[in-house]
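Severity: low
Component: inverse-folding endpoint
Summary: output formatting inconsistent between runs
Steps to reproduce: submit the following structure tokens with default settings.
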């Protein structure tokens, strides 16, 4: 089966292939590259730079949270969490019992001894099995995005404290949404945040599927950042 964490052999071999071209032959070699290959290489470089930036950010965030002396306690209530709809996967308000119950699907018989939702969001869990620690980022992304996207269409959406509102995309107006799109290198489309979270609304705003997919991936990342904002604001 394909691993989510292993790099393909072709990717790891690429730097070695480039080293095989002597510097005095480089100029002649680049003259033979067709225009379509140059466009492809530009996309590959952009994707590689974005991937490396994500890895650096993730490592920095992980180190910051694990090195922090603050142990996050279970959050009982924040914002309108006691009134909001669709809060089943709102990990940040899981107490210890709820967190352990949910983790049984992931960890089987090796559920962490001390855990709650805030600790899961902030990567402060001491996992009993290293393999479970590797599974958690995908599980967090699934839950965070599922909850985040539900909030865009629910009757009573979760409203965070003021200091945690910056990345609450489902409450963004058109101006805020366009400012975020420009920040990630995309064109302004004059839509609300919840319109971009919705699959149909996003595909309507971006006829280019690559652009629509990029916005989707950025929104998924934002759903986790938003959860971290909520925990920090508690």
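Observed output (run 2 of 3):
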């Amino acid at each position: 089966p394909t691993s989510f964490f292993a790099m393909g052999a072709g990717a790891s071999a690429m730097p070695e292939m480039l080293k095989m071209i002597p510097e005095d032959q480089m100029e002649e070699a680049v003259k033979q590259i067709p225009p379509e290959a140059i466009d492809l290489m530009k996309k590959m470089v952009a994707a590689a730079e974005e991937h490396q930036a994500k890895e650096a950010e993730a490592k920095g965030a992980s180190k910051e949270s694990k090195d922090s002396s603050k142990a996050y306690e279970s959050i009982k209530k924040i914002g309108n969490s006691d009134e909001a709809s669709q809060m089943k996967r709102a990990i940040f308000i899981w107490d210890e019992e709820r967190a352990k119950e949910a983790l049984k699907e992931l960890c089987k018989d090796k559920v962490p001894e001390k855990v709650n939702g805030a600790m899961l969001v902030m990567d402060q869990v001491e996992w009993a099995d290293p393999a479970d620690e590797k599974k958690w980022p995908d599980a967090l992304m699934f839950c965070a995005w599922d909850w985040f996207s539900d909030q865009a269409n629910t009757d009573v959406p979760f409203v965070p404290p003021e200091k945690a509102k910056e990345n609450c995309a489902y409450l963004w107006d058109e101006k805020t949404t366009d400012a975020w799109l420009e920040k990630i290198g995309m064109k302004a489309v004059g839509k609300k945040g919840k319109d971009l979270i919705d699959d149909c609304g996003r595909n309507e705003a971006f006829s280019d599927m690559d652009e629509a997919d990029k916005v989707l991936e950025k929104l998924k990342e934002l759903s986790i950042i938003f959860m971290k904002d909520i925990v920090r604001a508690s």
